[in-house]
Design goal:
Layout (H helix, E strand, L loop, with lengths): L11 E7 L4 H17 L3 E7 L8 H13 L3 H9 L2 H7 L2 H9 L4 H10 L3 H13 L7 E4 L2 E4 L7 H17 L1
Parallel strand pairs: 1-2
Antiparallel strand pairs: 1-3, 3-4
Length: 174
């Protein structure tokens, strides 16, 4: 017997196309925190990978983020790596493994995952989907089928995301 009661409507999905060596993505975390505080589990925030060629460690960072998700610490890891974007630029993949160790994750498994490439397909699929929908830079937000580009400016984006989320949630609850 399945429960089809509308007590728990599906959350609204916000995809954030991001790369972990991007200072604009780091500044977008304030908006992510505010959106989480406002909507809780009514808004599902998903990080989607869009590593940029100009950042040579961003592809490895995306793979490492997927390993963190597998180990149950996706967002804490993502935020920790974004906070160290300059260090990642200077020191490279060692920062990814060090960050995992500092968060109490299995750092050896991160090292192996970066060598064996087990998460490459996820990163490639995200990047291909991003390109297909017109993502050219990070962060780019997609909610309710609308794409909002945050790479040039974050100004007003959170308000716009809230307008769309409120409209979608009102429709879901009706």
């Amino acid at each position: 017997m399945s429960d089809t009661s509308p007590a728990h409507p599906e959350p609204v999905v916000l995809d954030i196309w991001c790369e972990l060596q991007c200072p604009d993505c780091r500044s977008a975390l304030d908006d992510v925190h505010a959106l989480r505080d406002r909507y809780g589990d009514r808004l599902e925030i998903r990080l989607r990978h869009f590593p940029l060629e100009k950042h040579k460690h961003s592809f490895a960072a995306a793979q490492a983020a997927e390993e963190a998700v597998e180990q149950g610490q996706g967002w804490p890891y993502i935020e920790a790596v974004l906070a160290r974007a300059e260090e990642l630029d200077r020191r490279g993949e060692a920062v990814l493994v060090d960050t995992a160790r500092e968060l109490g994750l299995d750092a050896e498994e991160f090292d192996v995952a970066l060598i064996d490439g087990r998460h490459i397909l996820i990163v490639d699929a995200d990047q291909a989907e991003g390109k297909a929908i017109g993502v050219t830079g990070t962060p780019t937000y997609v909610i309710g089928g609308e794409r909002l580009d945050g790479g040039s400016s974050q100004d007003g984006l959170r308000e716009r995301i809230e307008e769309i989320a409120d409209r979608l949630l009102a429709g879901a609850g009706a």
